[in-house]
Structure formats: C-alpha cells, structure tokens
Amino acid sequence: MYAVIVGVLLLVAKVAELGPIADWSWWIVLAPFGAAVLWWQYADSSGLTKRREIEKIEQRKQVRREKAMAALGIDARRDHHARKARETAQHRNEMTTRREDAKDAKGDGRREPPRP
C-alpha cells in the first residue's frame, strides 16, 4: 500500500513537473507500482494475506462473544477476578490449616485430641 502511495505521489510530481522529479526517468517514477505488484504477489503466495484475514475474523468473533456474554450478565473479567479471589482464599485456608497442624504437632495443647 505504501508503494502505491509513493508511486502516485511520484507520478503526480512527474506529470506536474515539480522539482527534480520532472527530470527523472519514467522507469524510476513507475518503479513503486512494480514493487507493489511484487509485494502483493508474495503476500498472496505465502499465505500472509489469508492469515491476516483469519486474524481479523477471530478478533471480530472474540468481540462478539464478549458482547454476548456481557448482555447475558456474564463478564469474563469479573469471572477472572472472582476465580483469583477464590484461589487466594483457598490458599489462605490451606496455610492456616498447615500452621494449626504444625502447632498441634508441637504439642502446645490448644486443640483437643480426636475422640474415638
């Protein structure tokens, strides 16, 4: 795309006979158009164009899914934060339990032994 823009600017300058571009050869002025054709040929044959198209489609799908989830009252960010909070609370509970078990193992007598 940039090559086409440069080519158009050079073409306009050549036709309008602006500055030193008026003295340039037509081959130099038209070269960006040839470069654009070569780039498009490469992009199509290598699959670059198709990959970009697929990425755009996937991005649109993701935006559409997020809108649908928000419309249903399910927010992905809220769910992520809620899951993190649950994991943190679970981790704290595990750490508290471990500390209590360690104290019991030392025998400081704070908890009653289990009854049979």
Sheet with most strands: none
The low-confidence runs, each spanning 5 or more residues with pLDDT under 50, are none
Q: How many strands? A: 0
Helix proportion range: over 70%
Give Rg in angstroms: 34 Å
Summed over residues and divided by their number, the pLDDT gives a mean of 84
What structural class do you assign from the helix and strand content? mainly alpha
What is the string of SSEs from the N terminus onward?
A: HHHH
**Rough outline:** rod-shaped
- Give the N-terminus to C-terminus distance in angstroms: 82 Å
> Strand content of the residues, in percent?
under 5%
Q: Could you say how many structural domains there are in total?
A: 2
Number of helices: 4
Can you tell me about this structure?
This protein has about 120 residues and is an all-alpha fold. The protein folds into 2 domains: about 1-45, no CATH class; about 55-100. Helix content is about 80%, strand content about 0%. It is built from 4 helices and no strands. The chain has helices spanning about 1-15, 25-45, 50-70, 75-105. Helix 1 (about 1-15) runs antiparallel to helix 2. It is rod-shaped, with a radius of gyration of 34 Å. The termini are far apart. About 0% of the residues are buried. The mean pLDDT is about 85.
List the helices and strands and how they pair.
Elements: H1 2-15, H2 26-46, H3 48-71, H4 76-106
